[in-house]
């Protein structure tokens, strides 16, 4: 594997982008779960909890990569990723109800459990963006997770201040969904017959996600008013 291969670099950047966009809730969980610990134990909870969560996420992604070899599962995964991208644009739920723990082990378990439950979208997205390469997943996680942990407040602040970043993140997910669908082996004859779909589909998924997300948000505003 060439370390300066443009395709590999783009995959890693996509993985990092997906983690940063979808990692906001996980960062909140880490903060909430460890907020009642003594200062001397907070860093331990964050490091151990996040380290175990990364290991579990890599294993889950490896399983997802294996499952995506099953016929039509890439198509299903791509459609699911489109739903996740739209949900990202229209999600206005409050912060998760995570209770802070004054026990180090309990805090670590809370961080790991919450990450596994809330990390399903990440796993599907990472499986698609990596193109079946678990090494890329590990590299992307090692780069992005420390940013999520130590820079979560900055990331969330920028997303609140510049909503366009959420749309950029959703577009990355939509593009990944399009690429995942194009990778569906059972549909290769169709894509070979209509070669233009190789270029049109990823762009079409981005436009679809942005337009549908914007439409749903407009409907919500009208309903409130």
UniProtKB/TrEMBL annotation:
GO cellular component assignments: membrane
Regions that span the bilayer: 12-33, 45-66, 72-90, 111-128, 134-152, 164-182, 194-216
Membrane topology: Multi-pass membrane protein
Chain coiled-coil ranges: none
Protein name (record): Integral membrane protein, YjbE family
A Pfam family annotated for this UniProt entry: TerC
InterPro entries: Integral_membrane_TerC (IPR005496), Integral_membrane_YjbE (IPR022301)
Subcellular location: Membrane
Family recorded in the similarity comment: Belongs to the TerC family.
Keywords assigned by UniProt, alphabetized: Membrane, Transmembrane, Transmembrane helix
């Amino acid at each position: 594997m060439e370390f300066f291969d443009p395709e590999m670099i783009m995959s890693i950047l996509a993985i990092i982008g997906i983690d940063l966009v979808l990692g906001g809730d996980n960062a909140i969980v880490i903060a909430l779960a460890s907020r009642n610990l003594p200062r001397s134990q907070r860093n331990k909870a964050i490091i151990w909890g996040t380290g175990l969560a990364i290991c579990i996420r890599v294993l889950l992604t490896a399983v997802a990569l294996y499952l995506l070899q099953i016929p039509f599962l890439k198509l299903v995964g791509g459609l699911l990723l489109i739903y996740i991208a739209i949900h990202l644009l229209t999600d206005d739920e409050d912060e998760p109800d995570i209770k802070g723990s004054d026990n180090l082990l309990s805090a670590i378990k809370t961080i790991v459990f919450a990450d596994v439950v809330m990390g399903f979208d990440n796993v599907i997205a990472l499986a698609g963006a990596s193109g079946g390469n678990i090494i890329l997943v590990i590299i992307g996680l090692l780069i992005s997770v420390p940013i999520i942990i130590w820079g979560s407040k900055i990331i969330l602040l920028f997303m609140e201040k510049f909503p366009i970043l959420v749309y950029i993140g959703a577009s990355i997910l939509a593009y990944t969904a399009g690429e995942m669908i194009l990778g569906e082996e059972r549909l290769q004859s169709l894509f070979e017959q209509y070669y233009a779909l190789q270029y049109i589909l990823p762009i079409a998924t981005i436009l679809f996600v942005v337009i549908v997300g914007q439409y749903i948000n407009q409907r919500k505003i009208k309903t409130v008013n």
